[in-house]
Design a protein that fits this description.
Elements lengths: L1 H28 L3 H15 L18 H12 L3 H9 L1
Amino acid sequence: MITNIRKITAMTLFAVSWLFYFTLSIPSNSIWIDQLKAVDIAKDILDGNFPLVGYLHSNGMHSFPAFYYFITPLVYISENPLFLYWSVAF
């Protein structure tokens, strides 16, 4: 009887911690404005506009432009930001 209660408690704690983790990690795993800006800059590269600097960060520094040149072939395949997220993440 005590082992069944321990198993149920362990499974419940695991499920609660799993849900808690994914609830808190959604903002860090979602697509925000900087990913959409990266897609726009990659589209500009496909149109023939080659930037030497990226967009401005909140601290006033420009981002490194090589990233945009790396994702440009992926934007050529698909402009969907979710496709870009999954292709770069894995």
